[in-house]
Amino acid sequence: MSKIGVVLVEDQADMRSVVKDIINLSADCICLGAAGTPAEAREFTLTMKPEVVLMDVHLNASENGIDLIRELKQKLPETQFMIFSVFEDEDTIFDALQVGATGYLIKQTDPPDMLEAIKDLSQGGAPMSGTIARKVIANFQAQPDRKISSKSADMHTLTIREREILEQLARGLIYKEIAANVNLSPETVRKHVYNIYLKLHVSNRVEAVNRFYGR
After folding, report:
1. Nearest Cα residue to 170 out of 213, 203, 110
2. Which end of the chain has fewer CB atoms at under 10 Å, N or C?
3. Lowest mean pLDDT among 45-54, 108-117, 136-145, 165-174
4. Rounded to the nearest 10 degrees, how much is the dihedral formed by the CA atoms of 122, 82, 73, 169?
5. Contact present, 8 and 20 (Cβ < 8 Å)
6. How confident is the model at residue 115 (pLDDT cuts 50, 70, 90)?
7. Do the beta carbons of residue 199 and residue 154 sit within 8 Å?
8. How high is the pLDDT of residue 214?
9. Is residue 89's pLDDT more than 90?
10. What is the CATH number of domain 4-127?
């Protein structure tokens, strides 16, 4: 099984070095390039065509990670972009998701959880740190026309176990945490999530949660 190709975009040299080593020491991932500037990010991403780009938000005074995702996602629609940042404000979160990011991790994320998130993202998931997911969900719940709609035709096709897992996805939990809660292996949880996506006609966590809350 080939490793998941990752391009890391991080302007702080020390952090860039640490995260690059974490990726390269993992069994499932390999860092194809570690960029410190927007120019390097463009070069590495367009040349390497990675499966996943781990993108910092703050890069320099004139360009940021959100600008880069907007630009690069149009050229490489199959590449998955995940924000990796200290910023947790709602404007940054929703700007990133709007331009094409499908994952959002805060930099305090433990290395095993970061690697699991990269794997999740590469397989069609939309991993988010718990605090980020809660803000996304709170935004859904705050809208008057977004009410829980578990009686919809699509929701009715889910098994009891799949609904249980979807509820935990909506809480922002990653596969490993869900597995511990429902006494299943992470791989079995991953298979259930795949079936949930098929039944709800969605391709990632954000869309699944959106459907769960009846957007």
Report:
1. 213
2. N
3. 136-145
4. 60
5. yes
6. very high
7. yes
8. 61
9. no
10. 3.40.50.2300
CATH 3.40.50.2300 domain extents, the chain: 4-127
Alpha-carbon distances of 208 from 29, 177, 201, 205, rounded to whole Å: 26, 18, 9, 5
Structure tokens at 100: 């094409």
Mean pLDDT of the chain: 84
**Which positions ≥6 away from 29 have C-beta within 8 Å?**
3, 4, 5, 6, 23, 52, 115, 118, 119
- Whole-angstrom Cα distance, residue 56 to residue 54? 7
- The answer on pLDDT for 67 being more than 60 is yes
Of 174, 178, 188, the closest CA to residue 127 belongs to 174
Site of tokens 């390999």 = 30
Contacts of 204 (CB under 8 A, 6+ apart): 102, 124, 125, 126, 197
pTM of the model: 0.68
Predicted local confidence at residue 148, as pLDDT:
42
Residue intervals of the chain classified under CATH 1.10.10.10 are 145-212
Window from 148-157, 168-177, 178-187 with minimum mean pLDDT: 148-157
pLDDT digits (tens, 9 = 90+) for 33-44: 999 999 999 999
User: Which SS3 state, helix, strand or coil, does residue 116 take?
Assistant: helix
Identify which of 45, 203, 27 has the alpha carbon closest to the alpha carbon of residue 116.
27
